[in-house]
């Protein structure tokens, strides 16, 4: 029995360090794996930040270029104060085409980050004009420096009179 106990004791003494070694290996493996995953996520974040910095640098270069054009762009944009001349200019364009236009202003939508300020307008005309004159009138409005959006267009001709009703918006910035 001594031999049996001795072998059992020797086996246990030999197995304990092996078991401890195996447990240490598994603990270290999970620690190394978690640190590796953290390293991968940190590397991915660094890559994203590097791309963002590159994009920011490119945008700053473009912003410097855009500053050269901002005064020119501002010259093309209509201010709210310049809308006072809209009715006079539409009247002059109408007279060039044998049409008398009356302009009435309606509600104003506020300016936002994505849309300009819009002022509702109604243009009405009862004139002795031809359809060609009206087409020319629309072309002149389109080529004017006003930003006009037409929502409704009602045209009829009665006894030589061309009746035109337009409604829409004129935009200012």
**If strands are numbered along the chain, what order do they take across the biggest sheet?**
1-2-4-3
- Estimated structural class: alpha+beta
Question: In the CATH hierarchy, what is the architecture of the largest domain at level 2?
Answer: 2-Layer Sandwich
Distance between the termini: 103 Å
User: Averaging pLDDT over every residue, what do you get?
Assistant: 82
Helix content: 55-70%
User: Mind telling me the C-alpha Rg?
Assistant: 40 Å
Give the topology string: H per helix, E per strand.
HHEEHEE
Question: What's the CATH H-level homologous superfamily of the largest domain?
Answer: Ribosomal protein S6/Translation elongation factor EF1B
* Whole-number tally of structural domains: 2
- Report on the biggest sheet: 4 strands, antiparallel
- Which CATH class of the largest domain? Alpha Beta
Continuous helix count: 3
Strand content: 25-35%
Low-confidence stretches: none
Describe this structure in words.
There is one protein chain. This protein is an alpha+beta fold and 173 residues long. It folds into 2 domains: 1-76; 81-172, 2-Layer Sandwich (Alpha-Beta Plaits). It is 58% helix and 25% strand. The chain has helices at residues 2-76, 84-96, 131-143; strands at residues 101-109, 117-127, 147-158, 161-172. Strands 1-2-4-3 form a 4-stranded antiparallel beta sheet, covered by helices on one side. The mean pLDDT is 82.
Give the arrangement of secondary structure elements.
Elements: H1 2-76, H2 84-96, E1 101-109, E2 117-127, H3 131-143, E3 147-158, E4 161-172
